[in-house]
Each structure stands twice: as C-alpha cells, then as structure tokens.
Amino acid sequence: MDLATLEIFRTVADEGSVTRAARRLGRVQSNVTTRVQQLEEELGAPLFARDGKGMALTPAGERFLDYAQRLLALAQEARQVMHPDTPQGSLRVGSMESTAASRLPGPLAAYRRRWPQVTLRLRTAPSRQLMQAVQDRELDCALLALPQAAGPDVATQLPALGLDGVVVCRESLVLLLPPEHPPVASLAEVQVRTLVAFESGCSYRILAEDGLAAPAGTGVPRLPVALDIHEVGSYHAMVACVAAGGCAGVLPRSLLALLREPPDLREVPLAEVDTLLVWRAGYATPALSALREALSDLAGPAKHLSQAVAKPRRGRAG
C-alpha cells in the first residue's frame, strides 16, 4: 500500500470504471486492475463490487476511501510545506455556484499567472456539502456562506468542527419576484407559494425559507400554506423560472449584474451575507496562503473569524 496505489484506488472510486480511471491517470488498464487487486489482497477485503456497468465501492471500500483521502491529502500537504516560499502542487477549491461565477474568474486567473506550478481544481456545490467535503479532506478549502439567520451563529462553531476561515466578501441577497407581482413593502406581502432554489444544503435557500416562513418572534407563518420548493441546477434556470411567473428565487445582486439582458423582475432586499474561505484547522500550505492573498482584494483586507463575522442584516423590502 503506497501513495501511487492509493491514488489509483481513489481515481477508480471517483470514475466508477477502470477504463476511465486508466485514461485519467495515463496508465494502461491492466496496470490499474492489477494494482487494485493487489490492494484488496493486502487489505483482505473486496473494495469494489464489479458488474458489467462498472465498479461500485463496497462498504469496506467506502470506509477505506476515507482513509485514502486523508493519507493522500496529508502527503500533498507535507510535500508543499517543504518549500514554504514557493506555492506548488495542487489545491482543491470548493465554491458556491454564485461565487464561482461572479467573484472567482479574475482572482483565479491572476493566481494562475503568478503561480503556474500550482494545479487548481475547482468544484461547485451548496455550502453544507462544501463544508463537509473540507472536513472529509475531499477539498482543501471552500468558499461558502453560513445560514446564521436560521439558527445559532454557525461561525462560532467552526473551531469545534475542526475548521478555520476568513471573510472574503459580502453579498447583498435579493428575493426575485415575477414582473406581474404587486409591489411589496415587506416580505409578509409576498404572494408566491413556490421558491425555486438549489438542492438542500444551500445557505441562500435556508435564508429565503426562513424569511418567507417565520417572522422573527411571532411564530406565525408568513405564507398561509406550506412553501413549495422547486429545485434547479443553475442560477440561469432560477431566473428563467421566476420570469415565467408563479415562483420566487433568491440570489446575490452581484450575479444579476453579470446578465447581459436582465429580465424585468421585482427585487426585494433580503439580507447581507458574508462569503467565507474555510479550511481545516492547522492546514497551512503556501498554495492556500497564495489563494488567500489573491482573494483579499474582493472586499478589502480579509477579516479573520476570531475578530468577528457580521450576521446577515434583513433589508427593508420594497
């Protein structure tokens, strides 16, 4: 069991196919098959269930994958800290879809120009899934939002979760309503019954559900019926659904600014929410430090979570 074998195992697990894994690794298929079989023999347990459709992890394989991820991440970190003045190796970055679209293209392009020896791997997902991926060492860091308005201040829980982070920018969230929707003076006057949103785990979705369903301190639902959730996979689809009528959506104002021809939709201020760059506590590599520097210009000097993380402020609807 060496690092090369662990990388082969992880790649087969990711691809679900020896053929695709071999292509991705630049190895012959027979070599990948042999290394996996040797690893299974050494561990004394089958790691994959094989059928005509591909390779699926067995329960033992799923357990071992967690250890393989941690060992490979630790090895990568060890290589990088041996050269503290030169960012190199790989950096696996997670991001919310909106942040990747509206905030990251410039900083990541500048990062690549300055540190071409670093391989950046970007993955998008909702905030909750991103945080879990950082904890599980599937990602080295992630840009996410914390749904503080939905419960206790989650930022104070990061150390207990084995995480650390900095605030990199603040987003102004707006609730989008169809153009024919009557003007509203407060969220209580929103008439739509469907919220178009990303899958469960999205902090912006949690804030929208909280704002539409439970006025602070009253316990009385804002809407007379339960809020229906229509899940989509992109912000473009979200905007299109709102424009079609009958539903509302929440997204950062910075994302609306990217649309070449924004549709004529009503915008209701919802909250001011911080975007955080989060990583595992104790994880410190030159590549991560360089990324923090590249992101520091998004909204002035980055604030460390030990200083303060401002809670979302409810804006006046109009």
Automatic annotation (TrEMBL):
Record's keyword annotation contains DNA-binding: yes
Keyword Transcription set for record: yes
Molecular-function GO terms, alphabetical: DNA-binding transcription factor activity; transcription cis-regulatory region binding
Pfam families, A to Z: HTH_1 (PF00126), LysR_substrate (PF03466)
UniProt entry keywords in alphabetical sequence: DNA-binding, Transcription, Transcription regulation
Coiled-coil region: none
Gene3D superfamilies: 3.40.190.290, Winged helix-like DNA-binding domain superfamily/Winged helix DNA-binding domain
Domain HTH lysR-type per the UniProt entry, residue ranges: 1-58
Family membership: Belongs to the LysR transcriptional regulatory family.
Protein name, as recorded: LysR-family transcriptional regulator PA4203
